[in-house]
């Protein structure tokens, strides 16, 4: 599974793995892929420094990258408190009532919510970058549009490739115009924030729109057959996120959540604004149903919704309140049916890819080859 | 593009084309694919007989099939008038008001709506089959679940393969249990009735669920690269519908609608209940927006919605009322950018397929082959 892009990065397989867990990122790079650490949860720069140190010590010299959530437009002088003040009381009460209905306990006194994500605030993301550029990262990906121009310049000065996610050809063209090096075409079936165009259509749309920039296909990919399909569509690699949630190296805090992921079929997700205020694919739960119910107050725009539900999501996860317990994940969750090591995932991917290539050659009448 | 299934049917390319137009169906089969005539609009058996005669005379002896819309469960003694009587007055008034708002003229006195589709009524579909089994059709496809058991038996007695559409692995298993021969996995991105699981995930789901039954991939396929992707995912062929709407052999009555289809990008569709009462992908218009608007009365269940809007849709199409003018079509509409002949579509499909196979072999390190 080698493309121009994988050769440029010096990796064996054109498989990029996005993960919030340093151990998973390092294992992906060691297995011949390209691990990308999600930074959005690192509020304190020292925590990010600690985990990048860990990766450096465990990646066996293989390349890796960082994923941040950085808005292209700067919002001057807005603090978290300002945003909190914009949340209507009725919405706060809906959270209180819904949690009470399911008997969800409070966090302990002084306990900080792990879901109080502030990495989307520009200054927090910039602090992350100040740390990251001290490490030999090879890729900086942004989940929220093109990064600001000075960040792109700074990355290029550090010989770091810049990528961004796009849900349409139009968004992808904006990334190309902003001087980015790679576009991640994020299909409808992907976990997390997605648009409505499915990978089968989106991948070639984006490939054609930004040619000759390399495109990574994201959304619906968890087997070698799906890798082959994405590469047949013109991608120079694949970007996998969901599949790493249930690897043995992952550190999901809730065993019950892992069970839910392993049991879920491909129809078990929903694209909902419940988590962040923008449509994001996640396990469908009674929590997402409550937010998507026309009888409820509905969701608030980003970033208000994320702040509104941060403590609630932490409480649901900590106390493993089954009917409400969810996580961002793509439709590929239907193929995540056993806990495997990262290396075993790669073994399955490469085996499935070779089988798909054999199959397609037979169909093309090149079976002797 | 040859698979076990295409060899069994004696066709050159494992490309199945669904179309309401006899000229397109015949051209698909002549080009080496397998044309499937959509029968739902044939209320009068003689009309179907006339068009099957035409196909017989123009298909050069190549095989073809028929697509019907037949419910598995029989609803005894329900007439169209009974169904009409179930439509609330408020919904009728909403149709009147919306059409008036856009100044849509009435049909002429005595003019019959082309969209008054009754092919979904079991007796109408059975009358169609009485006609069709007098012709050497090789495939009978059903768009609405498994056909009734006696129809499957009758088809098999005529050496006709039976296929049905499925939007999930669960539905596909029901088809296998009903003794069907082929499952069409209809992804989220497809035109017409679809579920929520995208082709990248649905195709292998269904392939695994009904193995060893052959699966056709539908949804998001209009290029040879997409054919290669679908076959890499395990399909034994592809099922294309949208792409034939703008071929030169098609007989869409509205030039403005053809212009709209050629101009639309892949984000121009919506999955809406506006046309039939079940979610069906179609061009997004101010008509679909009106039905999907929470401030409106909302849609009625199938088959009420279809009867409610039949005349309206005919009037919108006849008078080409631009903001309301739409049609069922998939996200692949973004690649339908010029009027081509059916043969030109096949030339593009085979060329793109070969390019994709070359590409995937290079990536797999089999470039010398």
From TrEMBL, chains A, B:
The keyword Flavoprotein applies. GO terms for molecular function: dioxygenase activity. Gene3D superfamilies: Aldolase class I. It comes from the Bacteria. Keywords: Dioxygenase, Flavoprotein, FMN, Oxidoreductase. CDD domains: NPD_like. The keyword Flavoprotein applies. InterPro entries: Aldolase_TIM (IPR013785), NMO (IPR004136). This is NAD(P)H-dependent flavin oxidoreductase YrpB (Nitropropane dioxygenase family). It comes from Streptomyces pseudovenezuelae.
